[in-house]
Amino acid sequence: MNLRERLRFQILNKMDLTREIEDEEIRQMIREEIIVMGRERNLSLEEKLSLEQEVFNSLRKLDVLQDLLDADDISEIMINGAENIYVEKNGVIEKSKLKFSSEEKLYDVIQQIVSINNRMVNESSPIVDTKLPDGSRVNVILSPISLEHSTVTIRKFPKEKITMEKLLTFSSLSKEMAEFFKSLVMSGYNIFISGGTSSGKTTFLNALTEFIPKNERVVTIEDSAELQVQGIDNLVRLESRNATLEGKLEVKIRDLVKAALRIRPDRIIVGECRGAEALDVLQAMNTGHEGALSTGHGNSCRDMISRLETMVMMADDVSLPIEAIDKQIASGIDIFVHLGKVNKNQRKVLEVCEVSGYENGEILLAPLYQYECREGKDVWNRVGTLHHTEKLEIFFSETAEESNCMQQIG
Length: 410
Hints:
Layout: H1 3-14, H2 23-41, H3 45-60, H4 65-70, E1 74-80, E2 85-89, E3 92-95, H5 103-115, E4 127-131, E5 137-141, E6 151-155, H6 164-169, H7 175-187, E7 191-195, H8 201-208, E8 218-222, E9 235-239, H9 253-260, E10 267-270, H10 277-285, E11 293-297, H11 301-313, H12 322-332, E12 335-342, E13 346-359, E14 362-373, E15 384-388, H13 390-409
Parallel strand pairs: 7-11, 7-12, 8-9, 8-10, 10-11
Antiparallel strand pairs: 1-2, 1-6, 2-3, 4-5, 5-6, 12-13, 13-14, 14-15
Helix pairs in contact: 1-2, 1-3, 2-3, 9-10, 10-12, 11-12
């Protein structure tokens, strides 16, 4: 038994479990034991403070995981069994020196995490998605479904809201583009954001919401609440719910989209389309609900169209021909935005396209902004610049003409 486990064992034996014990009382008990052990081990002040925090975390928080959650420079935590913990720092994945004392301790921490939201994970239900109090997403897969050991993956929720101004600081897009997106959001364009895993889709969606007029009624729909819409007083946040072990009480994203249409929204924001809910989102966009925002996994603006077609086909209560689906996409979505990583870790806007119509069985996309790679760089190590195309000038001229017509009609 190492020093930390020995100290933890002694504190557990001293704790009076018949009453509620405050955190500071536990810390004081740990300090007293450390003083005694320090005489034997000749521990330095730094070692004593570190030992105190480790033991406290193991008793009251999430053990070694707590240090990783508290680190601001870590964006993702990947636990492959008790002894293999990997973290993503500034877009780079590296192995952490920290490890759990045993698989049993890891299992205890897993149960502690899922119990926060009254969830359950066991042999009969070995896979669970949940979240931490700060909104960080958590996925758990227990052994033996995960063959060698249980796995936990945590996408940390940023403590500080990422604004459009910060995205400009990160060079994720240009000042011109930020103004362009501001005008799109304020004017009520339906925008769909695509990108791969960890490309910054939700972050970018959050940044776009700061341009929503403050007097609008906004409804957000998510499977795990991550959106940070600020400055909107008339805000309704909806979150889906998984079924119980008996297969009851499930609330799907599709149910929430349908419910949102009945509560008089000015704007609907769907955190991510993953399946059949894409059909309901498109129908909402096509029935007068302007300014809708959503995201989805895709490799380009064009590829996102194929993904949306597939997702709509997943709706088991509706069977639509591909032509009808494409017409729904063409008439519902105004702008596609594609995000990706440059130099493997820097997130950027790579492509912005306007949906300009539907002809001869194909959705027409007009590129407004494109990321141009420099010669000699491949797609995994892109270096280049984002520039607007000639289509952007046409887009602005058509928008101005439409605005003038609307004013004359008014």
